[in-house]
Amino acid sequence: MQNLMLAILLLQTSIGPVQVPELPAPTREALPNNPSELAILRAGDALYEQGKFDDAARRYDEVLKANPNNVSAMHQLADTYFQQHEYQKAVDLAINGLEFKSTIRPLFYVLIGNTLDITGQYQRAVDTYRSGLAIAPGSGILHYNLGVTLNTSLKDAAQGRTAFKQGALADPNYPGIQFQLAASFAMDDLKTPALLASSRYLVLDPTSNRAATAYNMWRQMLNGNARPPDQNGQIQILVNPNQKKDEGNLQVLDMDISMSKVLALKASAGKSQMQSMFEQVDSLFKMYGTRPAGEDKDKMVWTYYIPYVAEMQQKNFVEPFVYYVSQRTTIPGVREWLAANPGRVAAFLDWSKDYSWPKD
């Protein structure tokens, strides 16, 4: 990992800054792809996914030569240039794409912002993402990239988290935002919001490589501050007296995690690992649903996450949730349960998809 980070830093320092003119307003109409264009673009996309960027670029360029106003080809070709480190060419084409009224217009802002970020122009990248959000406030990908640049490139964790939280409200179904929130909360030892954000992420994306990291974090958060039994069978529960209060006073909620873990350990005799995990999560989400928010009623934990998991528990969806998010693991019994209960999983996913998230 250190070598990878060093390689990224060397790449950024070896690239000259790209030239980005003033971002244009859309003055031209974009036309839908005709069947012939769509077929060529899909062929290009297949090559792109295989990492054959030169071949993909030729397909996209073929469409653009026949129709210089095809915004889909512009975006795909610009993105391919980005992958090939042809950053100025990527920006020039994306600027051209911004001149068109199109549903994919926010993606041109993303591409320009990403190019500015990777070439070291971090504040201009932030400004570009925010310009995109001014015309597409519901764009999860713009919120996500804004948060990443603030958090990672500008080292402003507080502003990064704010951007991710705004993104979670704007687009509750964008997985990367939930992943970044979970990581941000975990970094500050905020166990309850980290557990809840990773829970939401794993519903949206249970099988990717990144899901493995999120699942490990989720399992770690489920331990709370409880320590395994010592030689006398005693379980310790630690308290962090210096825990930040940015997300409210979480000590009671974090204690609920620890207590749910203690109770699960005491009741684990004769039960499978998955059964114990389900019972712990079910009891925890039930506890969360009965807690009064008090002075923290406006914090995201209370307005956004707890109503979701409380309703999940009330509708008896915790069991399919726990098995569904564990599907990538090798824990005994997971695949068998999922294969035997497709209806319960489908009902849970339908409920989750239709859940009404707060807008602000």
Please give a structural write-up.
The chain has 360 residues and is mainly alpha-helical. It folds into two domains: 18-171, Serine Threonine Protein Phosphatase 5, Tetratricopeptide repeat; 221-239 and 250-354, no CATH class. It contains 18 helices and two strands. The chain has helices spanning 2-14, 35-49, 53-66, 71-83, 87-97, 105-118, 122-135, 140-153, 157-170, 175-187, 191-204, 209-222, 251-266, 273-290, 300-314, 318-325, 334-340, 342-354; strands at 28-29, 100-101. It has a two-stranded parallel sheet with strand order 1-2. α2 runs antiparallel to α3. Residues 1-14 have low confidence and may be disordered.
CATH topology name of the largest domain, in short, is Serine Threonine Protein Phosphatase 5, Tetratricopeptide repeat
The CATH H-level superfamily of the largest domain is Tetratricopeptide repeat domain
Strand order of the largest sheet: 1-2
CATH class of the largest domain: Mainly Alpha
Uncertain stretches of 5 or more adjacent residues: 1-14
Overall pLDDT confidence: 92
Annotation, overall tally of beta strands: 2
Number of domains: 2
Question: How many DSSP helices?
Answer: 18
Portion in beta strands:
under 5%
Radius of gyration: 23 Å
* Main beta-sheet strand count, sense and barrel state: 2 strands, parallel
Which CATH architecture of the largest domain?
Answer: Alpha Horseshoe
Shape: elongated
Distance between the termini: 37 Å
Helix content: 55-70%
The SS-based structural class is mainly alpha
Order of SSEs, N→C? HEHHHHEHHHHHHHHHHHHH
